[in-house]
Design brief:
The complex is a heterodimer of chains A (412) and B (190). Chain A has 13 helices and 15 strands. Chain A has helices at residues 21-32, 47-57, 71-83, 94-99, 101-109, 134-138, 152-167, 196-203, 233-266, 292-305, 323-330, 351-363, 383-394; strands spanning 15-20, 36-39, 64-67, 88-92, 115-120, 145-148, 175-180, 188-193, 274-277, 284-289, 310-315, 317-319, 335-340, 369-373, 406-407. Chain B has one domain: Pyruvate-ferredoxin Oxidoreductase, domain 3 (3-Layer(aba) Sandwich), CATH 3.40.920.10. The chains are: A alpha/beta (412), B alpha/beta (190).
C-alpha cells in the first residue's frame, strides 16, 4: 500500500503514516535527495525500487533513474555517476547481489560513497525466495559498511543517515543498509516522516565527490593498475588497502556522531553500533541482529518478570565490526547466546557468533557461549524461540557449552 | 495487545485488508503493525495476514500464532484450512458466509461470531467476489476495535481512487450494516 506523500518543507510537524519497510526505505532515499538511482527491476528484486520509481514518476523525488540490464550494470552505472559527483543509490538482494559482486568490490576500493539497501535474503540453493541474512553476510568482507535495522522507522531514518556516513570525508566508503526481507520489508508499521527542510539541514551542502572526479578540465586516471612485485605497484596497492581499513575504523566514530546528530534534531535515538538492553545487572545475555530483536526484547522482558537475570546485546553496525563497543557490553555478563539468521559454513556456527568470538578473545576473559541459528529462508523467530534461547544460555552458567549450534526452526 | 489473523484466498485482498486495518488503527491513535505471510501469491490459494494493535509501541515483527480475532474473508476456506488454530479462549470469528450460525463451522474458543454475506454484497457492488473491505466493515461491527469512520479514512488514504474508492467505501459500510453478531454461550470449563 502506498499511502505516503512527502511533505512540503513548510510543514514542521512530522507526518505519521503506515509504511512497509520497503516503502520507508524509498521515502528515506527521497528525503536524502540522490542524483541518480539505477535498478534492475526483475526477480529477485523487491517492491523497494517500485516505490522509488513511483516517487520519481510522481515528481516527488528529483533523481535520474536508470533501468539497467542487470545488477552488474546497475553498480557500474552508479560508479560513473558517483565519479561525476552525484549522490547515488540502489537496492538489491540475494542473487542480484551475487551478480553485482565484481563492481561491488570495486565500489569500496574506489572509495565511492554509494548507498545500497540490501533487502536481505537467504542464499540459494536449495531454492527459496525468502528472507535471511545469508546474502549480506556472504559479502561482509568486501569493504562496504553494513548496518542492520530493527524497525521500519529505523529503516527510514538509517537510510538518510547512511548517505551522511558514506560521504563523511574521514570515511568515503559505500554503505549497505540491511533490512530483513519479509518481516521488515513487507511488514507495515507506524512511521514518522521527518520534514524535508529538516532533513536538508541535517544533510548540509552536498559534497559527494571531492577526492576524484570525471572532470574534462582536470583529467586524471581513476583506478590505475597497481600491485605486482616491482616498482611502485606494491606500495600503491598497500596504500589503497590501508586507506580502506582506516576508513572503516574511522566510520565507527562517524556512525556514532551521525546518530547523535539525528537524535538531537529528530528526537529518535538508535544505538549506532551496539545496543545494550537491560544488560547492566544481567548475569547473561542473548545477542541479536536486525528485525528479530523486537521479539527478543519482549522475551527478555518476560524472562525478567519471571526473575531471570538476562539482558540483550543487539548489533546495529556489523561492518566495521564494533569490537570495542561490543567488548564493553560483553564485559558485563558471564554467559552469552548469539542468534544468527544465517549460516557460517566453515565454523559450523552463525557468522555473528564466530566474529563475536574474536571480540571475546581480546577481552582476555573466558565467557561460555553458544550459537543459535534461526529464521532461515523466511522462518519466523518468535518470542517462544527466544524463551528457548534464554533458557539454554542461562544453562551455560552451570553446564558445559555445546559444541554444535542450536537450529531454532528445526522442528517447527 | 490485540491480535488479528486474516484468512482468505489469493485475489480476495487479505493482505491489503491487513494494511488498511492497521492504517485505521493508526487513525485512532494506536500503534499498529501489519505483516503478510509470505509465499508465491496464486489466485485462489489460501493466504493469511496478521495485524497487531496496541497502545504502546509494538516491537515484535513476527507472525501471529494466538490471535484474539479471526477474519475469514472466504466462505469455503474452513473446509480446507484450520483457521481456528491458536485462537484465544473468548475469541472472535468474523466470517464471510450466507449461512445461519448453526451451519457455520466454529471452534470451542469462539465466543463471538460476526457473520456477513460478503460474497453476495461483493457481487452486487464489484461484480466479483472480492470481499476484503466488506469484511473490514464486518470486523468493526463485530469487535468495535476500530470505528467505521477510521476505516473510511484509511480507505480514502489508500491506493483506491475515484470509482474504485466509492465502491469500496460502499462495500465497507454495507459490511458494517449487514453483519449479524452472535454471542456464543461458552461451555463451562470441565
Amino acid at each position: 500500500m502506498s499511502t505516503a506523500t512527502l511533505e512540503k518543507p513548510a510543514a514542521a510537524k512530522p507526518k505519521v503514516i503506515l509504511a512497509e519497510g520497503n516503502e520507508a526505505a524509498a521515502l528515506g532515499v527521497a528525503l536524502a535527495r540522490p542524483d541518480m538511482v539505477a535498478v534492475y527491476p526483475i526477480t529477485p528484486q523487491s517492491s523497494l525500487v517500485e516505490h522509488v520509481a513511483k516517487l520519481i514518476a510522481d515528481g516527488k523525488m528529483d533523481a535520474d533513474i536508470v533501468d539497467a540490464e542487470g545488477e552488474h550494470s546497475v553498480l557500474s552505472v552508479l560508479q560513473g555517476a558517483a565519479l561525476a559527483g552525484g549522490r547515488t543509490y540502489t537496492a538489491t538482494c540475494g542473487p542480484g547481489l551475487a551478480f553485482m559482486f565484481e563492481p561491488y568490490f570495486r565500489t569500496s576500493g574506489m572509495r565511492l560513497p554509494m548507498v545500497m539497501t540490501i533487502v536481505t535474503r537467504d542464499g540459494i540453493t536449495p531454492q527459496s525466495v525468502w528472507g535471511g541474512h545469508q546474502d549480506a553476510m556472504t559479502v561482509r568482507e568486501v569493504g562496504w559498511i553494513q548496518i542492520y535495522c530493527e524497525s521500519v522507522q529505523e529503516v527510514l531514518d538509517t537510510t538518510i543517515m547512511a548517505f551522511k556516513i558514506a560521504e563523511h570525508h574521514d570515511v568515503m566508503l559505500p554503505v549497505n543498509v540491511c533490512l530483513d526481507g519479509n518481516y521488515l520489508s513487507y511488514g507495515a508499521s507506524r512511521v514518522e516522516l521527518p520534514p524535508q527542510a529538516e532533513v536538508d539541514a541535517f544533510m548540509g551542502d552536498k559534497d559527494v565527490n571531492w577526492h576524484v572526479a570525471l572532470d574534462p578540465s582536470r583529467p586524471m586516471a581513476v583506478d590505475p593498475l597497481t600491485g605486482g612485485s616491482g616498482g611502485k605497484g606494491p606500495s600503491t596497492f598497500v596504500r589503497y588497502r590501508k586507506g580502506q581499513c582506516k576508513g572503516m575504523q574511522n566510520a565507527l566514530a562517524v556512525i556514532e556522531e551521525v546518530h547523535e546528530e539525528w537524535a538531537q534534531r529528530f528526537g529518535r535515538r538508535f544505538a549506532p553500533l551496539v545496543e545494550e538492553y537491560r544488560l547492566d545487572d544481567a548475569d547473561y545475555a542473548i545477542m541479536t541482529l536486525g528485525s528479530m530483536s523486537g521479539a527478543a526484547k519482549d522475551a527478555v522482558d518476560a524472562a525478567r518478570d519471571a526473575g531471570r537475570k538476562v539482558g540483550l546485546i543487539k548489533l546495529k553496525t556489523f561492518s566495521p565490526f564494533p569490537v570495542v563497543a561490543l567488548q564493553k557490553a560483553l564485559a558485563k555478563v558471564k554467559a552469552l547466546g548469539v542468534v544468527d539468521r544465517s549460516v557460517g559454513f566453515r565454523w559450523n556456527c552463525g557468522p555473528m557468533y564466530q566474529e563475536t568470538m574474536g571480540a571475546l578473545y581480546r577481552l582476555g576473559r573466558f565467557i561460555p557461549s553458544m550459537s543459535f541459528i534461526g529464521g532461515l529462508a523466511g522462518a519466523d523467530i518468535t518470542e517462544a524461540h527466544f524463551q528457548r534461547v534464554i533458557a539454554e544460555t542461562e544453562a551455560l552458567l552451570t553446564n558445559p557449552a555445546p559444541t554444535e549450534p542450536v537450529w531454532l526452526n528445526e522442528k517447527d | 495487545m490485540y491480535e488479528v489473523r486474516i484468512h482468505g484466498r489469493g485475489g480476495q485482498g487479505a493482505v491489503s485488508a491487513a494494511t488498511m486495518l492497521a492504517a485505521a488503527m493508526l487513525e485512532q491513535g494506536k500503534y499498529a503493525v501489519a505483516i503478510p505471510a509470505f509465499g508465491f501469491e496464486r489466485r485462489g490459494a489460501p493466504v493469511v495476514s496478521f495485524v497487531r494493535c496496541s497502545d504502546r509501541e509494538i516491537r515484535q515483527m513476527t507472525n501471529i500464532y494466538a490471535p484474539d480475532c479471526l477474519i475469514c474473508v472466504d466462505p469455503t476456506l474452513t473446509r480446507s484450512v484450520d483457521i481456528f488454530a491458536g485462537l484465544k479462549p473468548g475469541g472472535t470469528l468474523v466470517q464471510a458466509t450466507n449461512r445461519p450460525l448453526e451451519e457455520v463451522k466454529l471452534a470451542p474458543n469462539v465466543a463471538t461470531a460476526g457473520l456477513c454475506d460478503a460474497v453476495s454484497i461483493a457481487l452486487e457492488i464489484f461484480k466479483r467476489p472480492i470481499t476484503n473491505t466488506i469484511m473490514l466493515g464486518a470486523f468493526a461491527r463485530s469487535t468495535g476495535v476500530v470505528s467505521l469512520e477510521a476505516l473510511q479514512r484509511s480507505l480514502e488514504d489508500s491506493d483506491f481512487r475515484d470509482a474504485g474508492l466509492k465502491q469500496n467505501l460502499m462495500a465497507l459500510e454495507r459490511g458494517y450494516n449487514e453483519t449479524r453478531v452472535h454471542t456464543i454461550e461458552q461451555r463451562a470449563a470441565a
